[in-house]
Every structure is written in C-alpha cells, then in structure tokens.
Known about the structure:
It is a multi-pass membrane protein. The chain has 23 helices and two strands.
Amino acid sequence: MTEDTGTPLNVLSHVNGVVNEGFETQGDSISVSNRSSFKEEHSRKGLGLYLSKVSKPINATEDYFKAHAKTIKYIVLGLLGAGYVAYFITACILDIERSIALVVLTSLAVVSKAYDLVKTYHGDSITKCFIPAQRSISYGHFKCKRPEQLISFGGVCMFILVIFIFSAHRTEVAWRSVFWGLGLQFCIGLFVIRTEPGLTAFQWLGEQVQIFLNYTKHGSSFVFGPLVESDIFAFQALPIVIFFSSVMSVLYFLGIMQWLIIKIAWVMQITMGTSPTETLSVAGNIFVGQTEAPLLIRPYLKDMTKSEVHAVMVGGFATIAGSVMGAFISFGIDASSMISASVMAAPCALAISKLSYPETEESKFTSEENIKVACGDEQNILEAASSGASTSIGLVANIAANLIAFLAILAFINASLGWLGGLVGFPSITFEVRSEIISTFALCGFANFSSLGIVIGGLSSICPSRRADVSSLVLRALFTGTCVSLINACIAGILFVPPLDCLDVFGTSFFNTTNIDLINCCTDLFGSTVNNGTISFEGSWSTVTNATLYFTNCCDLFDNAVCN
C-alpha cells in the first residue's frame, strides 16, 4: 500500500537519501510569495508617504499662487512697468533725439491701451452718437489758396455724380455711409497734408519705413553679391517686395495685423454704419492685398449680401498691398504720400461702394461680437516667413513687367509734352510736383484689368458658392475702385499746396497784376519787414539782394502798415 498522502511534500523530496533540488514544496512557495508582496506593499506605502510629505509644500505653493494670481500678476506687471519707465526716462535724458522712436512706440502703446479701455467701457455710448443718419454733418471751414484747387473739387463732385447716375439702386443709397466715408477721408488728408504735426508725423513714419526696408540689403547682398551695390533696379528694389511680404506674413501669423485692422474697422463701422464683415475687409486692404484681405472674413463670405461682397472687391481695387507699397517707396516715391494715400482710400472705398451698389438686403452680421478673426495656417514663425517670401515671387515678376511698360509710356508722354510745349515757347513742360503727388494718390490702387482675374479667382477659391455673384459684380467694382483712386487724387489736389518760391514769383511777375502767388509773397515779405525809420528784413528775406526793390513794388500794389 502506498504511504499516507498526508505526508509533507518536503519529506518526499528526500526519499532514500536523495535530495531533489528542483522540487519546491507548495508551502515554501506560498510563504516566499507572501513575504515578497508584503515587502513591496510596505515599500510602496513608504514611498507614497514620503512623496506626500515632500509634495505638501509644493501643493501649498501652487494653491497660494492660484488664490492670489491676480495680485501676483499686478505685482509683476508693476515691476516690469517700473523698470520700463526707468529705462524710458534714462534713454530720454541721455539722448532725446535718438529716443524719438522709443517715445513714438511708447505713445502708441499708451494710446492703444486707452483705446481698448474706452471701447470696452464706453463703446456702446459712442456708437449711439453716430446712429442717426439724418444729423447734419459738421461744417468744416476750408480756405482755397489756389484756383486749381477748385478743379480738384470739381473732380470730386463729378465722380460722385457719375457713380450716383450709374448706381444699381439710387433710391436705396445710405447717405450716412457716403458722407461719413468722404468726411473721414478728407479729415485724414487734412491732418496729413495741411497740418504741421500730421505732415511731420507721416514724414517721420515714412523715414522709419525706409530705414526698415534697407535691411533687405543684408539678404540680397548675400544672394547677389556686388550686384546689389549697382544701380540695377532688379537687384535694388524687387528684393524689398520679398522681404516686406515675408514680414507681413509673420505679423499676420502673430495676430498683430488682425489686432490693428480690427481697431481701424471699429472706427469706420461706428461712423459709417456699415457691417463688421465688409468694414473689416476694407480696413485690411490698407496693409494686405486684394486676395489676402478677404481671408480675414473667409468663414462669413457665403452669408454676406451682394452689396457687402461688392464692397470687399472695391476695397481690393482701391488700395495696394503693403509689399507693393514698399516697392513703390523704393522707387523714390514719397513715402508719406504712399502711406497717407493707403489710409485715405479705405473709408472712401467703403463710402463709394455703398453709393455704387447700395444695400437692399438685410445683413446677417450686425454685431462685431459675431465676427472672429483667425490667424494664419502656418505652424510657426519660420514657416510664416518662408510662406510670405514664396508667395511674393509672382508679384515680383508682375512688378518688373509693368514697370518696363509704364516707365516707357511715361517717358514718351513727357517727351510729347515737351515737344508740344516747345511749339508755343514752353519746352520744359512735364509732370510738376503737384501732379506727382496727385498721380501718387491716383495710382495707389489695384484698379486694372489684370486684377479682374485675380479677384475672381481669389474670391471664387475662398467661397465657390459666390462665384456667380463675384463674376456679375466685378466690372462694377473695378469701375468703382478706379473712381475711388481718382477721388483720392482729387482730395490730394484740393489739400496739397506746393511750396511757393517767392524769388521766382517776383522775378517773373509783373507788378501791375494781383495774382494769388504775388499776394502771398508780398504778405510774407511784409511780415518779415522791420520799419524803424529804415527798412530792414528778418528771416530768409535778410539775405535777399533785391528785397528792398520787391518791398517797394509790393507797397505800390498793396496797402500795409509797414509801408507807411
């Protein structure tokens, strides 16, 4: 018979004096396993207890920061602000001339913050002040100093009349939008062209833009080498377009352009009463091109009215992209005129578009809270910079081709004017300074037939469902955009007064006539005259040889106290 099965298994492992080393008893296995699990559990509890003790101060610190986040934020901002104020004061004390840019940037930051606060707390109240379309527009006094300014004023009236005659819905015109748009345009032009602070500010801004664009040479010199130092246009100006396009793409990626555009759009919206979508797109055209600006309102294009779509296209035709502006400035065109022309064109484009194609439908976008502006699709700044540079390649080719054509045409026109003038004794007839300024404003736009395809293709690709509307409105928008550019030029012609060369006036005028230039020069001479028994002159007249003769002739024509 077999042995009792209750015999322990560890005994069976030593049967007949032979040790079975590979045989483990069940009891030993359970015992070892229990001891091991106990040690692991004890170790985990000890580690958890240790981590709990260590993390307590960390958690307490985190809870403290969360509870006092606002206070800590204000303290940090206060310290940073105090540090910046100290830096700002030190820089101004050491060299105020060198710190002008810092002063301007700081002032812009303060104004922007004040703008946000006013809009946040008083935006609704301000908006209500502009709602009544029937209120009379403030009367602005304007003194015409030259007869040719009346020609420009007549041009404004003529273009408005023509657009009204060809308006799609003449009885539906919202005159509030028209008058406020033209008023904003005139006020901007008045500030820039006819006031000393405005002229100085935009001239300074133009100089800073030129300094900024000069950084292009660091990139183009690496690619083209010594050719950059030559006067070859392709190596001097066209790289600026690439650089500026890349910078604009980066600013768009960072959201800076969207922020600035929204601020400008808000001002136009509350004054003109236009919808947020069309206003946002037109404001965007100040800085970006006719295909980039609609991207700001891409999600809303499918639901916009035909009048709003028309306004979007007019804004594209009436303005130029920032990259093209940079190229124009590099050509030698006055930077302040280019910048002011772009800013002035925006409200005018919105106003004239509402005259050409008035709103007859009910807009779905009546509040700016419903409008969200997205940033670019790029993943980082480097991709944004690269994308902006790549998209400018076609633009560079178009600029080069158009310059070849238009500069040749301009040379022919100048030669023809000189020939025609020579036949009647004026061989030096050409485009004068005033005409150059007017031409700058008139040509500051994309209103040309080559842009038709760009607009149709761009808007159709963004919103295919509106292809039919875009195609039916694009010719009207082109005509309206052209008129906007010409009205912009007329406003410049009204406001711009070229510097008067009195020595040339006195040398060519007969002193038995009373033309406006002679009156102004004699008035200036009287103001610089000191009569203390003997006649003497101050200022620039003190160095003029024939000042006494000019003074005598002026006194023969005009009665002034200094002549007695």
